[in-house]
């Protein structure tokens, strides 16, 4: 399948460049998606951040070289992107539990992380509820966070941003600006402005209807787009575990067999519904186009 071929080609690129600079943009180009989308897809499918996979593969190959040759530790360190033998030794010990020079000792135990390959596994035990809809342009306004996908930082920053906005009153003020009542949810979480260096933006937002929006808020215009919309029921006001599970299944189960691929659109969204009386639910909106 094309999707599997592209993902395996991306892994091949990593393997061929373990001793060189690995371009995330090139990986995304091979996989025919944005840099942000590729990193998110890789992490959800494999359970390992892209940067961590590359680090493990480099340290695995470095251990093999130390075992089978007389190469100096500093030369291995430089070869695999470390600025000093000290930095390399720390990373090596964190992974393997020993210092690099000990890798040559007879009977020493090392860890090996093999090259990944992507293949289809037959699952389908539980259904995925989704629909395809074309939405006309609309606007979202809200609170903006600048972050980056580098080293998975955005996955730490975004939950902390939610928590901070809930504690310092900014979330409550946004609800009021949107004309919502206490106990209701914000409408959306939006990722956008993905740059080739990994920088991106995230918004906690509400749909703009007839409100006059204060300049303190950022306003986004979401273009007319075909969306794959996945539904999920929440057990609580914010069921991150359930959302994460659906995101993972979208990339690992739905995209590989769907007749759609991620569209060239800069927005991915989560939409939130309900209140403390009616219960809560969410939808994941992914821009798609026919293959």
UniProtKB/TrEMBL annotation:
InterPro entries: AraC_E-bd, Cass2, Homeodomain-like_sf, HTH_AraC, MarA-like, Reg_factor_effector_dom_sf, Tscrpt_reg_AraC-type_HTH
Coiled-coil regions listed in the entry: none
Keyword Transmembrane helix on entry: no
Cited Gene3D superfamilies: Homeodomain-like (1.10.10.60), Regulatory factor, effector binding domain (3.20.80.10)
Keyword terms, alphabetized: DNA-binding, Transcription, Transcription regulation
Entry keyword Transcription regulation: yes
Pfam families: Cass2, HTH_18
Record domain HTH araC/xylS-type: where: 8-106
Record GO terms (molecular function): DNA-binding transcription factor activity; sequence-specific DNA binding
Protein name: Transposon Tn10 TetD protein
Species assigned in the record: Clostridium oryzae
